[in-house]
Structure formats: C-alpha cells, structure tokens
Amino acid sequence: MKSKFVLAQLSNVGDAEVNLAKAKEYMAKAFEEYHPDLIVFPEVFMSHFPVGTPKDVVIAAAQPVDGPFVTALREEAKRYGMWVICGMSEAVEDPDDPRKYNTTVVINSEGDLIATYRKTHLYDAFGYKESDTNKPGDKFFEPIDTPFGRIGLFVCYEVRFPEVARYQRSKGADIIIMPTAWAEGKLKSQQFHTLIDARAIENTVYMVACDLCGDGSLGESCVVDPMGVNIALAGENEQLLSAVIDTDRIEEVRKKLPAYKDRRPELYTI
C-alpha cells in the first residue's frame, strides 16, 4: 500500500496567529500540488522564540490543546481530508507551574484530535536548556493505527536515545514521525542524518523528520526508508517535501533484515 506524505519545512515566530496563517497557506498548497494523505509540521511550530527571550513571554504564548491553534488545524484537516501532525506549546494545567509542554498533536482527516504527545527528553545540551521553560512528559507516544500504517512518534532530541525509537518499534510502529527544531552548528547536520538513518535501519521503519528552518534551525528535513535509503531530502529553506510511503517496502526489508526479530533481550537489561 502506498501513501503520500508531505513535510512542511517552514520557519516560524513566537506569534501563534502568524504561524497558523502560514500553516493554512501551506496546507492549501500541499492539497493543490500533492493531495497528501498526511502533512507534518515541525516541532513547536505553533510558537518558537529565539534564545534569550524572557521566560514569561515564552510561557504566555502557550495554549491548551483545545485552544484556537489546534482547533483551527482540526478544521483545516477536515476541509482538505488530510491527517495533520504538528508541534505546539501546550499550557501546563497547574497555575503554579511556570512552564509549558513541548507537545505534538495528531489529527485525522475527519478533524478529530486522536493523539497528543508531550516530549519526554528535553534538549539540555550544546549550551541550551529546554527544561528552563518546558515540563517533560511522563510517557512515550503509543503508536496508532492509521489508513497508511502503524505510526510511532518522538520529537527532535529524542532521536539521540535509541530506546525511544525501540519502544515505538516494540509497539508495532511501521513509520516513525519526528517533528524537530534541530539547531545549526558544527557537526549538527552530520549527526542529524546519521541518527535518523540509524533509527530507520535498526528498527526497519520509515523515519519521517520534519524540521524548522531559518533563525538557527537546520532544515534538511528528510524521509528515510527501512533500509536506510534517503527517499526525500530538503535543503535549508522553506519548502514542501513530498514522499511516497510504501508499506510493502517495510515487509520486503524485514524479510531480508530480521534484526528486530533476531534480538536476544534476555542477555541484557536497560
């Protein structure tokens, strides 16, 4: 079975209304040009601020998952009959907790919000401290069945933890979606692609990584098949990136490369 996925590699700002307008614009373009089954937006696409922005400004921009940003995305998903996966800044329920969640929402083609995921491994690395403004989630994404395969999900920095992807595979994921806001820097492009390729190969899954671009983000969104073949790759600028996901390819690769089946977990504990 073949399905069309589109990755919306875009820049964004701290204003959710501005980013929502851009999301609507690119969903319309995606529908017109590709008629995709699913469109993926980057991590924290709803609102993302440059380093040094006051913490209270960042927190004030957060919304609940039933707020105006996600509600509008649900309407657009239903309008175009496409699934939507998008990163947002979710308000924490506790008014005494001065943080937010880095959340990803999954919306089906009927406009139903069918899953949310709060990033569990926060990016406290390379001189950045995501935990200053974000509260970590307390559980991994549970893969879901869709018309185009069983989908798993994690966010950005979590690709550096093979256990996260392995959990998705252990729960039957065929395709892993990775919204990201990968920062530019020395060796960052090499590490980005090496890690994504490794997660695809070791788990024999499609990896679908949609990155922010501009303002210090890398771009270079990509789709990698279960054998580690890069079937779609973006540059550094805004664009729609299209890829065909073929579930027959997954079965074909797993017959050749039964690495997941051949594990011997009784020999180790993590």
Key features of this structure:
single chain, six-stranded mixed beta sheet, alpha/beta, Nitrilase/N-carbamoyl-D-aminoacid amidohydrolase, 270 residues, 6 helices
Task: Describe what you observe in this structure.
There is one protein chain. The protein is an alpha/beta fold and 270 residues long. The chain has one domain (2-259): Nitrilase/N-carbamoyl-D-aminoacid amidohydrolase, CATH 3.60.110. The protein is built from six helices and 14 strands. The chain has helices at residues 16-34, 55-60, 68-80, 162-170, 188-203, 247-256; strands spanning 2-9, 38-40, 83-91, 100-107, 113-118, 144-146, 149-153, 175-180, 206-211, 213-214, 217-218, 222-224, 230-233, 239-246. Strands 5-4-3-2-1-14 form a six-stranded mixed β-sheet. Helix 1 (16-34) packs parallel to helix 3 (68-80). The chain is globular, with a radius of gyration of 18 Å.
